[in-house]
């Protein structure tokens, strides 16, 4: 979607300037502008800077983090679960039409699963977070978006099952490996057309046994928010996932390698003219589609209108 893509470009350039990286990529931007290739170079440059900063920040406490991971791993009672976790803080009755349609698609195509619909009313029945995390969330220091990163991780390390974002649309029953893998996340298998260098997507995560990658990610999140009152990077959660996967390569190697590009084909077309043959082809490529309720236009004849307004 153009509005979202433009906002992402602006965020990227602002962060590159803030990190003092503009001289590093100036020649590349002059040569390529903000083309796909230019975005790829810019994103990779920023990614390398930020992953280095995060590694350096956590290094003094990494041994304690690893010890906490091993202790929690040994005590974990997570086992095979048919639970799907879905969260809309304000309650599904107050959700946008896109979110409601996505939730209905889960009910339709996952009838054998236990779908737990979470909101602010019942969330504390399922999670247990440090008091300073809850306090900083209530104070607005931790945003709702980044609080949900902590929530999803705690749900999976405590109960197991599958986390699915409220803006994920199903158009068929997904294969069993999406739900039955010890650990599953969609991955960026190459930088891709958006220039995205972040290696994992966090909008669909399965954990069916105790997992050190998620446990370390959770511990790193707690450590970060214990010591910080602002977000160093919008993708902090994803950087911690990446760092955790480096410490536990054996567990990482077992994650099924499924690209996050195909499930986002619809997202990139929501505001474009609808084509039924093209939509049928997209559905044939993936039963899972990451979408958005933001910046959706009211123009007639678009994918958004055809899929979510009919």
TrEMBL record:
Alphabetical list of InterPro entries matching this protein: AfumC-like_glycosyl_Trfase, Nucleotide-diphossugar_trans
Gene3D superfamilies, per the entry: 3.90.550.20
Pfam families in UniProt: Caps_synth
Origin: domain of life: Bacteria
UniProt-recorded Gene Ontology molecular function terms: glycosyltransferase activity
Protein name (Swiss-Prot/TrEMBL): Capsular biosynthesis protein
Upper lineage: Bacteria, Bacillati, Actinomycetota, Coriobacteriia, Coriobacteriales
